[in-house]
From TrEMBL:
InterPro entries cross-referenced by the UniProt entry: AAA_dom, DNA_Partitioning_ATPase, P-loop_NTPase
Signal peptide as annotated in the record: none
Top-level taxonomic group: Bacteria
Coiled coil (UniProt feature): none
CDD domains with a match to the protein in the record: ParAB_family
Pfam families: AAA_31
Residue intervals of the AAA domain: 1-176
Protein name, per record: ParA family protein
Length: 272
């Protein structure tokens, strides 16, 4: 099982929307998908649960941290949903190490049952995010094309608690940053200029999808994506042409991300 975490400390950048689209996408591709929602807001759980596609686990995601013995339904698409208990974890600092250990042990125990685990995270740099990053193979970081978000890229890399450098150095050397995924992208001069600035400053962190100078993975801003999220629909199955058009724009980026995640060596490090 490969584990992919969606994270960015900026709120509202499309983490949960991308996590939801990816979960449906991988399930559609025939991968056995485990979806874990570590955000008490539940914006990954709600659309997956209401879509009727994912089997609901009988525990909330907090239990993956508080207990190491978990058993999940034998189904190809399972959701471990958001739960109120997630909020209390940060307030028990003496238990943070056990929480992270339990989470890692729970994922390890599920290794043979799923091909892919997708974890959506809350925007605070707390123990939930640390546990997720400490256990993951891949990090994908949705980012919005505004100045604050661009300024925030430094923190993503260098934050003292949850920055990828720190996590890799101290907790999880196998963690790989797939890259920054610009989301809610609009063809305005303002965003174009921020996109070129992002390319100039952080080109190695973007995800190339072609040979052109601006060919990097991104998610456009489309009302159909917000509607899919709000109505728990699968974007490419929606009746409107606008939804299918939005999906077509996303496919090259998802194919690239999927290629990276699924082609990588076994997470026990055999190919490392
Ligand atoms: N590509 C998109 N086009 C249009 N709307 C979008 C897109 N991506 C996300 N949205 C909408 O923007 C809002 C914020 O998105 P989302 O909840 O995915 O962000 P988030 O990063 O998970 O937020 P939080 O930090 O609060 O967890 C939601 O209403 C969502 O439906
Ligand atoms: Mg979210």
């Amino acid at each position: 099982m490969k584990t992919l975490v969606l994270a960015n400390q900026k709120g509202g950048v499309g983490k949960s929307a991308v996590a939801t689209l990816l979960a449906h996408y991988f399930a559609q591709q025939g991968q056995r998908v485990l979806a874990i929602d570590l955000d008490h807001q539940g914006n990954f759980s709600k659309p997956l649960r209401r879509s009727g596609r994912a089997e609901l686990a009988n525990v909330g995601a907090d239990v993956l941290m508080t207990s190491s013995a978990i058993s999940l339904p034998e189904k190809p698409f399972v959701l471990v949903p958001s739960a109120a208990g997630l909020l209390g974890l940060e307030r028990q600092p003496a238990l943070h190490n056990p929480f992270a250990r339990n989470f890692r042990a729970a994922l390890a125990a599920l290794d043979a049952q799923f091909d892919l685990c997708i974890i959506d995270t809350n925007p605070n740099p707390d123990i939930r995010l640390i546990a997720a990053l400490a256990s993951a193979d891949f990090l994908l970081s949705p980012i919005q094309l505004n100045q604050e978000a661009l300024d925030g890229v430094g923190a993503l890399l260098n934050h003292e608690r949850v920055g990828i450098r720190k996590i890799k150095a101290v907790l999880n050397p196998k963690l790989k940053l797939i890259g920054l995924l610009p989301t809610l992208v609009e063809p305005t001069p303002f965003q174009r200029s921020n996109f070129s600035q992002l390319i100039q400053q952080y080109k190695p962190l973007l995800i190339p999808i072609g040979s052109g100078p601006g060919d990097f993975a991104f998610i456009p801003k489309r009302s159909a994506i917000a509607e899919a999220q709000a109505n728990a629909e699968v974007l490419w199955e929606m009746k409107k042409t606008a939804a299918r058009d939005a999906w077509k724009e996303i496919v090259p980026s998802f194919e690239k991300i999927s290629g990276i995640v699924l082609s990588a060596g076994d997470h026990h490090g055999l190919a490392a």
